[in-house]
Write a structure and sequence with these properties.
- The protein has 243 residues and is of the alpha+beta class.
- It has a domain of 157 residues: Lysozyme, CATH 1.10.530.
- 45% of the residues lie in helices and 16% in strands.
- A three-stranded antiparallel beta sheet has the order 2-1-6, with helices on one face.
- Helix 5 packs across helix 6.
- The longest helix is centred in the C-terminal third of the chain and has 33 residues.
- It is globular and about 55 Å long.
- The two termini are 34 Å apart.
């Protein structure tokens, strides 16, 4: 199985380390399926012998599974999106604009080069910078994927505020972390946020509120995007079949 596929399924197969997160926010449910996959859902509803697992409060994104496939349900707290400090802009907002289409193309190109799911990369960008290519954190991380200057230099990124260069460098860095942690998405994300040294020191996700909230936020957003993509594909297939 290609790693891109495994990482894509990681959007629904949340690593066990994620369950140790303690950042307080709204209640959610951790669902374990018979095939070993796990996911976080906002709520669920029975439809005959099927169970609809809603990934957000408004019911826009959901996954349908057989009711008998659910072997475990555990209540968890999902970090609120505002738990992570917002990056401050290095440039006026009007200069930081990047169209969704251009962003998606850059993410798709980088994802194809490193065999990573575009929804995963989009989720990291949202958590890191909110899509602002001129964002700068209090620690000095820069651009869409918030590269520290030394990391950017090591990756050959000359200008971290150039969206394509930042995405290329950030994707390469995330790819290297996934390889280091054997495709354990939670550990790779924790290392992206807190550094590999912290993950190695604690032998898992460090007990830092910001890091744990970050890992939960990215994985939840990845779940949401992955489910939305699957729902869109089902709708397209349905419309095509009705012609």
């Amino acid at each position: 199985m290609r790693r891109r596929t495994r990482v894509a399924m990681g959007g629904l197969g949340i690593c066990g380390a994620f369950l140790a997160l303690h950042a307080v926010a709204r209640a959610a449910e951790h669902i374990t399926l018979r095939n070993g996959f796990e996911l976080i859902c906002d709520h669920r509803q029975v439809y005959g012998d099927r169970m609809r697992l809603y990934l957000d409060a408004d019911g826009t994104n959901f996954v349908d599974v057989g009711a008998s496939e659910i072997v475990g349900v555990e209540h968890v707290d999902l970090p609120h999106p505002t738990d992570t400090p917002a990056a401050s802009p290095a440039e006026p907002a009007e200069e930081a604009k990047l169209t969704p289409e251009a962003m998606h193309q850059m993410l798709a190109t980088a994802g194809k080069e490193h065999d990573l799911d575009v929804d995963l990369l989009a989720s990291v960008v949202r958590a890191e910078s909110g899509g602002n290519p001129h964002a700068v954190s209090r620690a000095g991380a820069q651009g869409l994927m918030q590269l520290m200057p030394k990391t950017a230099a090591d990756l050959g990124v000359g200008n971290s505020f150039a969206p394509d260069a930042n995405i290329s460098g950030g994707t390469a860095y995330l790819d290297a972390l996934l390889k280091k942690y054997h495709d354990n998405l939670a550990l790779a994300l924790a290392a992206y946020n807190a550094g590999p040294a912290a993950v190695d020191r604690w032998h898992g996700i460090p007990p830092y509120h910001e890091t744990r909230a970050y890992v939960a936020r990215v994985i939840h957003e990845f779940n949401r995007r992955y489910a939305a993509r699957m729902a869109e594909q089902r709708q397209v297939a349905k419309l095509a079949g009705g012609r």
